[in-house]
Specification:
The complex is a heterodimer of chains A (320) and B (336). With 320 residues, chain A is an alpha/beta fold. Chain A contains 9 helices and 12 strands. Chain A has 2 domains: 3-90 and 170-316, P-loop containing nucleotide triphosphate hydrolases (Rossmann fold, 3-Layer(aba) Sandwich), CATH 3.40.50; 98-169, no CATH class. In chain A, helix 5 (154-166) runs parallel beside helix 6 (184-201). The relative contact order of chain A is 0.14. Chain B is of the alpha/beta class and 336 residues long. Chain B has an 8-stranded mixed β-sheet with strand order 6-7-8-3-9-10-12-11, sandwiched between helices. In chain B, strands 2-1-4-5 form a 4-stranded antiparallel β-sheet, with helices on one face. The chains are: A alpha/beta (320), B alpha/beta (336). The A-B interface holds A 41-42, 141, 153-155, 182-189, 191-192, 210-214, 216-218, 236-237, 240-241, 250-252, 254-259, 262, 264-268, 271 and B 57-60, 167-168, 197-203, 205-206, 224-232, 254, 264-266, 268-275, 280, 283, 285-286.
Chain lengths: 320, 336
């Protein structure tokens, strides 16, 4: 096991208002050699979880409980200095808008080289050489590596951002919606690139996305989040063919898919709960088509099912 | 030309849009003309009453420019646009303004397309104020009906909210209400759900399908997502570098795409069913300057089937099967 998130809870403070409980006792283990998909709608806490692992939360974010165990150490208790050595070298991230995060006044290859020399103390020429190789590896033509960010298309910049995340061959790569702004053909190339990098390096990829189709195709396991909680975690095949949580089922049914024909999309009524409030029952209950009386009063646990799936739904509770 | 829908509402004929580029300083000193960018390079398209045509293609293929031309937000460099039988490209500004109410546009980003200081009521009522002299009570009831239609219910609680107080999906519903309150004949929807969550997007797509059935509106639905295109579109048109390279009924285009570019796009859609792995086609993406100026088919540099004739002349859109058109020499005899 590479990374273990133990009962992680996170709050965002808001001046004059109740804090928003963005994560609520999230428990998650990622094995060494796998791609884990993390899906859910905006505001469900998937990015917050990613930021917590890297310890790059906004200033008003406060972790209230839990641990993040990486290589037998709790990342949350490390000093800033030691965390800095782990961040990027051992755990790196492709951010949602990474393609816009390059400095416009420096060549892309130099920005990558700077990261290399800061972390490994390499001299300029060596850093430049590694940076060039990293860019070529993600499909940037060798004669373009010395370009400035504005000379790249969106797809090329996003690939450069991925090259930056892979530069130091981290053990864990978190990709937060890495293809959301791109068209299908470019998206497909980037997914292929991440897959083959993961296979070659036998590292861990946590792939955050709102698009279940993308996640279903490339990930070994899928974790579904709703309102700051993990509601389902299982092997991809099981999630896709036998979703155990009604929310997962709804997510799969509301996606248009060309290969499925013209059946009308199912929509999910209502909106996610206000996370500054506290609730007694299941958080999904107000929107759930299968809700029954007890759902409003009893908080479901994460139940383990025979085929190893974890799901947070009272319907799946083992009968006493 | 490409499929004759009955009750045709909008007809785009031979439309081109070339943007001038500023070129380099040295070039201008030596009197070199800079090459214009051909965003739309000769497009014909017809959309019928209550029909949805999905327009797909990669970023930079000219989808948005075509949508802006079809609603006369951009005048075309060449070509004509007929709304019913009126050529709207020839109208002077005052007359154009009078017919604008018949065609509307819905933009991608509901966070930027609404005026942050206008309430929902003002946003939705404004088109009515501008275009129709109606008593207040009637405007009010029109707005209420429209908000009901777009699923903002009960409408009374939304009337005096500002965009900042609405979620992304609710804002997009307001944008749709604003576009449809005058019951336009033709609406361009430019990536209306790409910024929204999947569960919200499904609601918006269903809403648009319901409204076109109810109001008979013709839609040009611009998207880069083929799943969405297939779901909402009666027909799908594929655009590549300023040209429509394939158009046909959605079922046909998705089950048997003809043009190699459409085939590439369809092969790039992720598959959820994990037992059936799709065959991915390899793609090369970069378009170099040399390619911009080359003669012949624009797709020749990426095409797996490229032949000699593709480098010499440009294929035209031809009916390969009933109602299914493609511009590719694989299907059409090359010119002599």
């Amino acid at each position: 096991m590479t990374l273990e998130v133990r009962d992680l809870s996170l709050e965002y403070a808001r001046p004059g208002l109740d804090p928003v409980r963005a994560l609520n006792r999230v428990r998650l283990t990622v094995a060494g050699d796998e791609i884990l998909g993390l899906v859910g709608e905006s505001g469900c806490g998937k990015s917050s979880l990613a930021y917590s692992i890297l310890r790059v939360l906004p200033l008003n974010g406060r972790i209230t409980e839990g641990q993040i165990i990486f290589e037998n150490r709790d990342l949350l208790s490390l000093s800033d200095h030691r965390m800095r050595n782990i961040r990027w070298a051992r755990i790196a991230m492709v951010f949602q808008s990474s393609m816009n995060s390059f400095s416009p006044v420096h060549r892309i290859v130099d920005q990558l080289a700077a990261v290399h020399s800061v972390h490994l103390g390499s001299d300029k020429r060596e850093a430049r050489r590694v940076a060039e190789r990293a860019l070529v590896r993600v499909g940037i033509p060798p004669d373009r590596v010395r370009c400035y960010p504005h000379e790249f298309s969106g797809g090329m910049r996003q690939r450069a951002a991925i090259a930056l995340a892979m530069l130091l061959d981290p053990q864990v790569l978190i990709a937060d919606e890495p293809t959301t702004a791109l068209d299908v053909v470019v998206q497909d190339q980037i997914l292929k690139m991440i897959e083959s990098w993961q296979r070659e390096n036998r590292s861990t990829v946590i792939f955050v996305s709102h698009d279940v189709t993308v996640v279903a195709e490339m990930c070994h396991r899928i974790a579904v989040m709703y309102a700051g909680e993990l509601v389902e975690l299982a092997d991809t095949d099981l999630v896709v063919t036998h979703p155990m949580h009604p929310y997962t089922d709804a997510l799969l049914k509301c996606l248009p898919r060309v290969r499925r024909g013209a059946e009308r999309l199912v929509t999910l009524p209502g909106i996610p709960p206000d996370l500054s409030q506290r609730y007694d029952g299941c958080l999904f209950q107000p929107r759930c088509p299968l809700a029954f009386g007890e759902c409003a009063t009893t908080k479901p646990d994460l139940y383990e099912l025979p085929r190893g799936q974890l799901t947070r739904c009272l319907l799946r509770r083992a009968q006493p | 030309m490409n499929g004759k829908p009955e009750n045709q509402i909008i007809r785009v004929v031979g439309v081109r849009k070339h943007f001038a580029t500023s070129g380099s300083l040295l070039g201008s000193i030596f009197g070199r003309r800079s090459k214009p960018i051909k965003a739309v390079d000769g497009v014909d398209l017809e959309i019928g009453r209550a029909e949805v045509v999905s327009l797909v293609g990669e970023s930079g293929s000219g989808k948005t420019t075509l949508g802006e031309i079809a609603t006369m937000l951009l005048p075309p460099s060449q070509g004509k646009i007929f709304l019913r039988d009126v050529d709207i490209t020839r109208l002077k500004s005052r007359k154009l303004r009078r017919v604008r109410r018949h065609f509307q546009i819905i933009f991608q980003d509901p966070f930027e397309s609404l005026n942050p200081r206008m309430t929902v009521y003002r946003t939705v009522a404004e088109p009515v104020w501008v275009n129709e002299k109606l008593p207040r009570s009637e405007v009010y009831s029109r707005v209420i009906t429209m908000l009901n239609d777009v699923g903002l219910t009960p409408p009374e609680i939304y009337l005096y909210r500002l965009p900042a107080e609405l979620s992304g999906g609710q804002r997009q519903r307001v944008a749709i209400a604003r576009a449809l309150i005058l019951k336009p004949d033709f609406v361009v929807a430019d990536e209306p759900v790409s910024m929204l969550d999947v569960s919200v997007a499904a609601g918006i797509l269903n809403l648009m399908l319901d409204l076109r059935a109810k109001l008979g509106t013709a839609f040009l639905f611009i998207t880069h997502d083929l799943n969405v295109a297939g779901y909402v579109g009666d027909r799908i048109a594929t655009m590549y570098r300023g040209l429509i390279v394939e158009i046909g009924y959605s079922v046909d285009v998705i089950s048997t795409p003809l043009h190699p570019y459409t085939q590439l796009l369809i092969s790039a859609i992720p598959v959820v069913n994990t037992t059936a792995k799709r065959a991915r086609l390899e793609a090369t993406i970069q378009v170099t300057e040399k390619e911009q100026e080359a003669t012949g088919c624009k797709y020749q540099f990426r095409c797996p089937w490229v032949m000699d004739v593709c480098k010499k002349s440009e294929p035209v859109l031809t009916e390969v099967r009933t109602g299914h058109f493609a511009s590719c020499f694989k299907y059409t005899p090359p010119p002599n």
